[in-house]
Every structure is written in structure tokens, then in C-alpha cells.
């Protein structure tokens, strides 16, 4: 399953009434199983774009069409927020720059949490497999604070793959890691995405990361709104 | 991981806060439940209508004191007047199904000694079983039964003791004891010279009767001090009889009660009058029977429990109440009035207070969970990013609040009943009547549902805060 963005627009209105376009993309597509790196500097709207693709934010206009194979195509930009949430829980894996693990949950529980909203039964064997794949088979019952930063990000990778997603989105997924760890984690993300045949879109400003993926896109090339804002955080 | 597991996980994560909130709910519910049980049981105890008798006849005076003393064996018998034995004799079998005379005034180790007839246990004065329907019933269709021994003889120094008396005093069959003056134990023992032998022990009735020692009426009169007192009362009343005006000034209750017989006798003694000894009051026949020298005209009674034929007729009450020396009261009516006047109001006020405590507990749930929601905005945003809908998040928080309400409520229900059990044990010790502390009624179940609903409602405020948590902002902000 891949997705196509058509004439996608998102803008933010500041408290003083100033309107700032953040995303303005005519067309962009990723095929099923494809692995793409998107380069973008700070404030280029890359996080907002990923939030739109994941359905966390609603677009002002345009279409985000997912190809669901036998089930046809689905434009999630036209869905209500709850339906976008359900879609995300079932089909999308999201890796954040910081791991965003729940501190009271063990590594295993955090991965199981990734399945909780998929509408499918929790699959402990799959969770164990993922954690084994990221080299944490001996750390299943560790809580995040007992793991190193690199290990925490590996748990986050395993969690993003827990619901067997069709699309995995990575927002600077190695941004908090040193170079060696970053390469390792990126390798794991790519390997696991291939294992479940998920399309992968990683946004990063790190050339060393971008250079690893077969297809590379500059956000500034597709987003006409890029650079129009210095915002470094998105607004719901 | 399902929603319930998530909620439990959240609660465990904030264990201290969760426990403290649970504790506040528990205390509020326990208080309310204990008060509900007290209200219900007090209503059942004092507002019961299943007495085995429908009237108590006694001297004119406090109706409530008469019922307390003759039915519950509590209260001050010294304030209770006496009636002539002739009142008892005048109750014809055509009017009453059965009648049980009582004389109150002595104790043994704090347990009341009550003089009565063997009709208490279905035995006639002649030692033969009474005809069906002529035996004392303490509740409708419930007669006293012996767990050991036999009924006392009407004319011997014998006693039948309640189960609690046996358990607490160590008295058993063939034990010999000497009662003391007064209905309650005092530091200064003032024992009678006469001794009674235990010949029977009653099965537990879960009523005040378990704390009573029953002796034959005649043996009670045989106590010299009682005899002297009765003579004194007769003397006062006959003097009063000469002057109708004076008679009005000497109410029967002021004359003397069995409890005051001793006082009257002592006063008499101090006044320089001669004092009876037992040789003058009675002779002991070779078979141990008492040959009482005091004529029946001098006999006094504290109360008569009466089962009228069928429904208590107003005619019977009217007839007794129009006699100068006696009154008849319905224990059910008196106790219902007592309960409605004194107990219902105060327990209702207490119940209202406990409901307020419950509301405070609900507010504590609100504050506790609201604080946790504020602290967990990032976690909530993560759950949303993983696919949890706003409604799921709302449900998670509401469920947590309802669960605290439910757990605290159930624990409070248990603790409330445990409190009632302690109260029941205390009541059993003091008035000889336990309460059904284990029984859960519809009011408690309804209250528990209310607590859970209130908790869920309180949880809605933080749940709405969680519902409105913007995902993108809280993900990036952290």
C-alpha cells in the first residue's frame, strides 16, 4: 500500500491573525513497499506533512489517498478525526525523533501498546519477534528509563511495526542518536519495513541518513510553502 | 493490551495517588453504609412489630420506660412503678391468650434477675405443661427453648438463665448464686441472703432475653427486703385510699418499684421499724418449696406481658388505661414512635453528612485524576498518535474514575459492614441484641451504584481535558 498526495494544503493562523501556509504540495506519491527519504531543514513543514499523512492533523484542502489493494482507495483527508485515528491505528507506524515511549510500561508493553488500537488481537509472539530483531530480546521487561537512548529508539521502532503497518513514517527517527547508533537503527527500520512490505517515508535533515535510502526527495522541491515560515513547531 | 489493562496500568503508575483517592472513597462509603445499617437495624430493633405479645401492662408513668424495662431489659427500673398482683389476676383468659407477670429489680454480675412464672417455658404453676397457645412467645410463633436442664419450679429457689448469662458468668446447671439489689451491678455488692440454683439454660434468641436470669415470682417475693417493701407500698396505698385527694398526690410510680423495694425497706429500717427476716417472710418446706407468708393482696408486679386474643382491641387498652393503678401500652407502637421521634431524624442527618463525605470523595477523584491528566498530556498524545480516538481517551479516564469509585465503594461496603459487626458485638454485650450486620439491602446496592456513577461523573471533567488534548502540540512540545 502506498499513498498519493494531491493538492494538499495546510496553513496555520497565528493568534494575531497572521496566516502562514505550511504545506502546499501539488502531487507526491510513494508506492507500496517503497523507501523514501525526504530532506528538509527546520521549519520546512516536514513534521506537519507527516502529521497530515498520518491523519493526526486535518488538511485544509487536498487529498491524501491510500491504495488499500483489494479494498480500493481511501482519501483520509475526507475522513472525520475518529476515522482517521482508527485508520492510523490499523495501517500506519510512526517513529518520532524522541522515542515517546510510555515510562510506566516495559519494552514489551510499549510494543503491545502499538497493537492496542489496530482492531486486532495483541500478538505477543510478534512483539517478541520485533524486539528480538532490534536486539532487545534480553530487555523485554525493562522500562524505558533502564534502557540507553539507542535502545529506547529501538523499542520505538519495534512499536511502530507492531500493528504490521502498510506505511511507516519516521520524523528524524535517528535525530537523538550518535552516528553509529543512527546507522544501526536506520538499518533496522528498513529491514523491518521490508519484512512487512511497508512503504517507508523518513524526513531528516541529516545527509548521512538521507543518503542511505534508495529514493531521495527534497521537501523544498515539492512543498511550495517550504521556507515561508520559521515555525519550528506545529500547531494542532 | 486492552482498555482495562491500560487503565490498571495507569492506576499502578500513580499508586500513591490512586491509593489515597481509594481511601477517601472507602471512608466515605464505609461511613454511609454503617449509618444505613444502623438506621435499618435500629428501625428493625425498635420498630419491630413481630413481638410475641401485643401489650405490656404496668404502673402509670413513662410508657417508654415500661417497654424498655419489660421488653429490652434496659433503662431504669427504679423509675418504674408497680401494680398490684390483682391486676394480673383480673386479666381473664377470655380476654387474653396468655399473660406473663414480671418483677424486676435485682441483678447478678450486671445481668438482670426477673421474677416470673414457669409459663415462660410453657409450664403451669402445678408443674404440668400448659395447653397449646398459653405459652410465652418472645416473637410471633417463637417460644423460648432450653438448651440444657428444665424449667424452674414455681415455688422453689431455682433459676433459668439466658444463653449470654451462661456464657459470660460461667453459671451452669446446678450452679448456686446470690443476686444483688438493683437492676445493674454496682461497686458495692449488696447481696441477698437467699441463693438460687440454676436448673435450666435457654437457647440463644438473639434478643435481650439472652441476658436475663429468670426466677420464680414467689422466690422473688421471698426476699425479706422485697416483702418489707411490698408491705410498705400497701401501707402507703391504703393510707392514700382514705383520702381521695391524697391518693392523687401519690402516683403509683412514686410508691415504689421492685427496684426501689429495697430502698423502701432500708428507709423503713432506718425509721426504726422492725425488719423482716426470712423466717417471717416464708418457710422452706422439706422439698425445698417456698411457703410464702405474704398475702397475694400485697404482691406487686413491675409489668405483665400480654397476648390478647387476636388483634389488640382498643377495648382492652381502654379498660386497662381507665383503671387507676395501671396502664397498657403496645410495645410496637411505643417503639415505632420512639424510633421516629429520636432515632430516624438523627440517623437521617448522619446519612446526609455521609453522603456529603461521598461527594467530597468524588471531588478528590476529580482532583486526583485531573492532576494526572495534566501531567500525562504527552502520554495521552502518544496514545492518540498510536491510533486511540478521543472517545477512547475519554473512556480510559472515565473508566479509571469509575473503577476507583467501584473499588473504593466495594471496599467501603465491606468496611462499613465490619464496623456494623463491631457495633453488633457491642450491642449484644450491652443490650443483649445483635444486629443483622451481614445483610446487604437494596439501599446499599443503590448507594454503591450511585457512588460509581458519581465517580464516573467526577472523572468526566479530567476526561474532557484529556479529550481536548491536542496531539501534535503535545508530541512536539516534549
Q: What features would you highlight for this structure?
A:
heterodimer, A: 236 residues, alpha/beta, five-stranded parallel sheet, four-stranded antiparallel sheet, 8 helices, disordered C terminus, B: 478 residues, alpha+beta, eleven-stranded mixed sheet, two-stranded antiparallel ribbon, 17 helices, 17 strands, 15% strand, elongated
The quaternary state of the protein chains shown equals heterodimer
Low-confidence stretches of chain B: 243-276
Strand fraction of chain B:
5-15%
Structural class of chain A: alpha/beta
**Major β-sheet profile of chain B:** 11 strands, mixed
The order of strands across the largest sheet of chain A is 6-7-8-3-9
Spatial gap, N to C terminus of chain B: 25 Å
The first-to-last residue Cα distance of chain A is 27 Å
Overall SS class of chain B: alpha+beta
- Helix count of chain B? 17
Overview of this protein structure:
The complex is a heterodimer of chains A (236) and B (478). Chain A is α/β, with parallel strands linked by helices and 236 residues long. Chain A has helices at 46-54, 81-91, 107-113, 124-133, 149-160, 179-196, 207-210, 219-222, and strands at 3-13, 19-30, 35-39, 61-67, 73-75, 92-95, 167-171, 199-204, 215-218. Chain A has a five-stranded parallel sheet, sandwiched between helices. Chain A has a four-stranded antiparallel sheet with strand order 2-1-4-5, with helices on one face. In chain A, strand 4 and strand 5 form a beta hairpin. The longest helix of chain A has 18 residues, at 179-196. The two termini of chain A are 27 Å apart. Residues 229-236 of chain A have low confidence and may be disordered. By secondary structure, chain B is of the alpha+beta class. In chain B, 53% of the residues lie in helices and 15% in strands. Chain B has 17 helices and 17 strands. Chain B starts with a helix and ends with a helix. The interface between A and B is medium-sized, with 36 and 28 residues.
